[in-house]
Design goal:
The chain has two helices and four strands, in the order βαββαβ. The chain is an alpha+beta fold. A four-stranded antiparallel sheet has the order 2-3-1-4, covered by helices on one side. The chain is elongated and about 40 Å long.
Length: 86
Amino acid sequence: MGQVAITYRIMPDGTDVDLSKLSAAVKKILGSKLKRVEERPVAFGLKALLATVVLDDKSGEGEAVEASLGQLPGVSSVETQEMSLI
């Protein structure tokens, strides 16, 4: 079984969400699976977080991470941006 790199786009509820606190919460939840998290502008002052994780290529693991990120306070939505085998 291999590994897969997945990049998630985490959209905040609005421009008033503190992205540094949200980024810290993402780091806490994902731990060593997280390889990179960065802010990206979306539109009209709204920024999203892009979080790249490396997971085992098992069924359901990516969906579980997506669901846990969606439960964070201040998160409007989470979607998979990229997925590739490594």
